[in-house]
Specification:
The chain has 379 residues and is mainly α. The chain has one domain. The chain is built from 13 helices and two strands. A two-stranded antiparallel sheet has the order 1-2. Helix 5 packs parallel to helix 7 and helix 5 runs parallel beside helix 13. The two termini are 22 Å apart.
């Protein structure tokens, strides 16, 4: 009996969530294939190398994969202890981006730190550090959530500071995303609704005001309401994405057969890569990707709600929500449901920072899933 119990325990602590891993592999694999199709023309034209973007993305997959395994193997108690340090590093990197001469100015924004030929976007790290910090602090103060000054104000200040630093990098979309992610984490942790309402009513007018302080944001909003107002300017990208989806129809034109990526669709390899999917794989391709993200989210939330520990439950929920909200936001933009943002499509859009942080998040989620199996005796 003792021998059998020992074998069972050993198997449980080694297992990982098979469905979650399979979904992740499919997303990353499809992402590389889609990225090659979407970027080979730009790579050949700009860098004289059709494999330029997919080669760099593959490098980040390798680095992110190693870090994901480390995140999966690292004891959660240790991650919990270093969370304040991760948050501090994130804040410092975000501040460094605002220093002229240190962070390069691209497209009117300072969002990147370049080192050894590779660029990193600290606002992506901010997404991870925010989830880690909120899980840590909300679990610590879960018995005092009715005391706003001691339990709610400190994490609210962290959310606002990270959002403000991101906004100062001229990245309104990610700043709004960080705020919304923090709000969702507050709600899941059981923060009383009256405090959530006060928080929301205080920040919403400020957000609306900031939205109208930059001309390009106003243009995005107007062209969302009526892309025909400026079809060759601010509305060009929205109309190009719409035309790509209409051309693809339900079944698509075929892998590699799309033409909008040849110059008619700005950021075809990045924020608007889903439009390339829609043109070449049709709506069936969009639904496939959406289905994979829904499967990922369903598994992530199942893990979260299966946990006994508040910290692990909050962390799993935050990690899952971060990836799901980004995916739904990106697909909504390309489909014309919401105005254009700079939120990438996780695992698929070109961008090492987003891919790296998304893979680390998945590693942590797999780490938590192993805790579920150990506590509950497997799925």
């Amino acid at each position: 009996m003792m021998r059998n119990a020992f074998v069972l325990e050993k198997q449980e602590t080694k297992e990982v969530d098979t469905l979650l891993v399979s979904t992740l592999i499919l997303l990353v694999g499809l992402g590389l294939g889609i990225l090659f199709s979407a970027s080979y023309h730009r790579g050949l034209t700009v860098f004289k190398d059709p494999y330029y973007f997919v080669r760099r993305q593959t490098l980040w997959v390798g680095i992110g994969g190693v870090l994901a395994v480390l995140a999966m193997k690292t004891p959660l108690e240790w991650i919990k202890r270093i969370t304040p340090h991760i948050l501090l590093v994130s804040l410092l990197l975000m501040a460094i981006c605002l220093v002229p001469g240190v962070s390069p100015k691209l497209l009117g924004a300072r969002r990147w730190i370049v080192l050894f030929g590779l660029s990193f976007q600290p606002s992506e790290l901010a997404k991870l550090s925010l989830v880690l910090y909120l899980a840590f602090i909300l679990e610590k103060k879960q018995d005092r959530l009715d005391d706003p000054l001691n339990a709610i104000l400190p994490p609210a200040v962290v959310i606002l500071v990270l959002s403000a630093l991101t906004y100062l990098q001229n990245d309104f979309s990610t700043a709004a995303f960080l705020f919304f992610l923090g709000f969702v984490c507050f709600y899941v942790a059981g923060v009383p609704f009256r405090y959530l309402l006060i928080f929301l009513l205080t920040i919403t007018p400020i957000g609306i005001y900031l939205l109208f302080t930059k001309e390009h944001r106003v243009q995005r909003l107007l062209t969302f309401l009526n892309p025909g107002l400026d079809p060759t300017g601010a509305g060009f990208q929205v109309l190009a994405a719409r035309n790509a989806l209409l051309k693809g129809g339900f079944w698509g034109t075929g892998i590699g057969q799309g033409t909008r990526k040849l110059g008619g669709l700005p950021e075809a390899h990045s924020d608007f890569i889903a439009a390339v999917v829609g043109e070449e794989l049709g709506w069936i391709g969009i639904l496939l990707i959406l289905g994979l993200f829904i499967t990922f989210a369903a598994r992530g939330y199942a893990i979260a709600y299966s946990m006994r520990s508040s910290y692990e439950r909050y962390l799993a929920f935050g990690l899952t929500s971060s990836i799901l909200i980004q995916a739904l936001t990106n697909l909504s933009v390309v489909s014309g449901v919401i105005p254009a943002t700079g939120i990438p499509l996780p695992f698929i859009s070109s961008g090492g920072s987003s891919l790296l942080i998304s893979l680390i998040m998945c590693g942590l989620l797999l780490n938590i899933s192993r805790q579920v199996q150990t506590e509950r005796g497997g799925w």
